[in-house]
Amino acid sequence: MTTSLQSDYLQYLLSSWDIKPTESLSWLDRLRAEAIDQAGTQQLPTKKDEEWRFTDISPLARLPFQAATPKFDLQAKDIEHLKLKEADNRLVFVDGHFAPHLSIISGSLSHIVGNLPALTSRDTLLQSHLGKHVSIDHNVFAALNTAFLRDAAVIVFPKEFVLEQPVHLLFIATQSEVTSYPRSLIIGEPGSQATVIEDYVSLQPSAAYITNSVTEISLAEHARIQHVRVQRESNQAFHLANCAASLGHASHFQSTTVTLGAQISRYNMHIRIANEAAECDISGLSMISGRQLADTHTCIDHAKPHGISQQQHKCIVDDAAHAVFNGKIIVRPHAQRTNSSQSSRNLLLSKSAQVDTKPQLEIFADDVKCAHGATVGQLDAEEIFYLQSRGLSETEARNLLTFAFGAEIINRIPVPSLKQQLEQAVLKQTQSH
Known about the structure:
Elements: H1 8-14, H2 27-40, E1 66-67, E2 89-94, E3 97-98, E4 113-115, H3 123-129, H4 140-147, E5 153-157, E6 167-173, E7 178-180, E8 183-188, E9 193-202, E10 210-219, E11 224-232, E12 238-247, E13 252-259, E14 264-273, E15 279-288, E16 293-302, E17 308-317, E18 322-331, E19 339-348, E20 354-363, E21 369-377, H5 381-389, H6 394-410, H7 416-431
Helix pairs in contact: 2-4, 5-6, 6-7
């Protein structure tokens, strides 16, 4: 499919918008208008595009889902099972729209956590970050998200501020045949420390809908942010996501991503080592079955010297599911003394399961230490035999080994209640096969 944005599908999405940039528009309106103009010059990606050659999103053209409208029928009791007891601060978005009656902001954070329309007093800060980290050039889904930008989770951790409890950003899908556009902006000012959970869930396990999300993260010098992203959407959903992080001097960014849901999911993560001595530690797990497709594309861009990056990504693929991992590491000419490692490990649980993995190194400096590796295989027969010799059945042995393979990533999540939820989800999936 080589459809342009003048096609029926994309024309339908943009038909309700006719914003033209003028001097009278606010900076936010101008940002939206620019995104509409960018979207109008682009095309939907196809399998002919190198970055999308394993992921066919042509079914989207048959799903011209309109933008979700606010619908706040949910009550606190309806989402009790989704709450994280460790999180004193929770921002809830229902089908992409902020739900203040379901959200909780503690007194200590009331001035730094909020929804975009309520933060006009911080326009200068927002204007310097919103739309500056995830590019809308050559990225039609980021452009569409920005064009439809209305509500957004905005978190600013002030200088030297240390938050012990995680902030929970909960994005709940409740409607069928709609498109939602979740947006998040996380800013860590100098010396701040915090954990942010970005959680995508569905209350309808078989509903068909589209989630198109964008997350931007900026860390100033010596800031430390732990970012946990969980995607457990409906098994008929389409999840298209872009995340970008910019790392300042001696900052530290740790990210753990878990992908369990959606019929087709695509996650683009771009991390830029924008100043010296910054570090990032990235891990991911995709666990899929049936005919799911989960595509993860990452890029770690070392633009300054003395940067450190570590990445580990795992896929567990069953039935006729298809997982894709493309991990690129770039070391720019002046980024000397870079130390970077990347690992892609993939487990196939059936003969029809498929994994495409492509680690990439682009090194333009000579004083660096970089390594990458990838493996694709099945469960180790000797390990299965050993567990059977200890009294387990073959099925129990396989389930235990599969669970242990995924639990290595989940154990990196610093929130016990969320970790327990995910362990139960993985255990349930292993025991169902």
